[in-house]
Every structure is written in structure tokens, then in C-alpha cells.
Amino acid sequence: MLRFSPMMKRISLLLVLVATGALSMTVAAYQQPAAAPAGTRAIDAVKLKDTLYVLTTSTPGDQATFSGGNVAVFITDGGVTLVDTKLATWGPALLDAVKKITNKPVTRIINTHTHGDHTGNDDKFGATVDIVAHENTKANMEKMDAFKGDKAQFLPKKTYKDKLTLGSGKDRIDLYYFGAGHTNGDTFVVFPALRVLHTGDLFAWKDGPFCDRANGGSCVSLPQTLAKAIAGIKDVDTIIPGHSPMQTPKDLQEFQRFTADLAASAEAAMKAGKSVDEATAAFKVDKYPGYKNERVKAAVQAVYDELKK
Ligand SMILES: [Zn+2]
After folding, report:
1. What is each CA distance from 286 to 112, 226, 256, 298, 307, in whole angstroms?
2. Please, which residues have CB less than 5 A from ligand 1, an ion?
3. In 3-state terms, what secondary structure has residue 88?
4. Ligand 1 centroid to 187 CA: how many Å?
5. Cβ atoms of 243 and 58 closer than 8 Å
6. What is the pLDDT of residues 74-108, one digit of tens each?
7. Distance CA 213, CA 88 (A)
């Protein structure tokens, strides 16, 4: 039987389209199947230390390259700890990326918070993996379809309220909860021996914060939560943010000031009777070098919604 390769099929389809003059109309539809489906691209890895890697490919926007939040891969004597597990559609790529770094098994997963781009593959590493999260995050995960029925076995097995230490010595991991922000259950994960902090989406990018009010998030509380973390977490040199390249403690301090400035400015504008658009226009992002203005309006809106209650 004569078989056409996908490329030949596309070329012949293209010729037919050109011949019928339908090309311009159908170009968008034609290109759709050619685009890489989510999860088919390899996930990039950044080596921070001999025992700590970050799986990136984490910048939102492009479906073909957005694999979910930054994942920390921490290699300990007893096995591998992952911080977050990306989007469910990227499961095979995530397993491949971990395997390329180490042949040790994943024995523990820490979820920084509930969102599907951070918890999507909790179920891909076997039923005996120890899954750890803040108690509010477990409650939020229980509401997700991804963790209902049979999948409930992949809900966090271990939870905490304020602080939790796992392991010891060079393998030690400290988990901290300082209050609401991105959600009401965000964990700061510290690798003390390596002087590295994973912030999850409490510090996702240099832009307006996303405060998920449906999961208890608060742009009003976020500046205070970040200030507590800055005061309470010492001896860190490198920060793994939720969705952007590695940062420093100085960057986190600046982001804290940015969120405090944004929340105060939105609150003042609201009290002065200004609209969300006016409040957004009045907040000058260019005071903060390298910051974007793509998510400021949504953050201002979140402050308005929260204060209106
Ligand atoms: Zn998130």
C-alpha cells in the first residue's frame, strides 16, 4: 500500500487549497495540527548545585512551551524530592527530564500550592511517594477533579501549619507558611545546606502578582506575607521563582516593595473613588526596572474585589 508521509499529505493539501483559492481562509486551521502539542517538547534543566536542579520551560503564554511552574529536583541519600510537578499533559517529559538528571527514584513531592501547573503529575511517581503540602493546600486540592475518586490517594499525606522540617544535614528541607498571598496555602521551600529558596508562585515573575481569591489568595495580605518570609528566612543566595529564571534575595525584596506599593496605591485609588482602569494607570511600573505591566490591572482588580467585601 502506498503511504504518504504527514509532510507529503500537508503539501498535497496545501496544493489543493491554493488551487481552490481557499488558502488564506484556512491557513489558521491548517497550521493547527502542525504546532507541537503540549508536552511533546523536552523540558529544560538548569543545574544549581551538584544535588539540585531546576526544570524550567515555565514561562506562561505559549501552549507549546509552557510546561507549568519551575520544578526543583533535589537529590538526597534516600531518593529524589521534587518541588512541584508541572502540568498533567507534560508527565512523560517530566519523567524523562528527571531520569536524565539521576537514576534515583522520586520518593517525596512537595507541592508549593494547589494549582494544576504545580500539582499535575503528583500521580506519576507511584503510590508510595510521600506528598507534602500546607494543610490549606491539601484542602484546596481536595476540591480539584484531578484528585477525586481513585486519585485521592495522591493527595498530600503529610501537612503542616507554620513550619515543617524534613530530613537532616545536607538533605534537610525547611517548609514555611507565612500567610495568604497567591493562595491561602503557599509554602516557601528552603534547602539550607545549599542556601536556595523555592518561592512557588508567591514570587512568580516581575509583574503584577496573581492572587487566586477562589483559593483564598489575597493581594492585600501578600506584601505582609512576603515581608515575613524575608525576615524569617535567612542564609539564602539563590531563589527559584514560580515561573521565571533564577532570582536573588534582592529581587525578592524588590518584589515585596512592588506588591506593597501596588496594594497601597490600589487601596488609595479605590478610597478616592477611582475606577480600576484609573488606578492601574496611576501605578507606575517603570519605577521597577525590568518589570512588566501585563498583570497589574488584574492585581489591582483583586485588591478592589477584596476590599469591597
Ligand atoms: Zn499558581
Report:
1. 30, 21, 16, 17, 26
2. 115, 201
3. helix
4. 11
5. yes
6. 999 999 999 999 999 999 999 999 999 999 999 99
7. 23
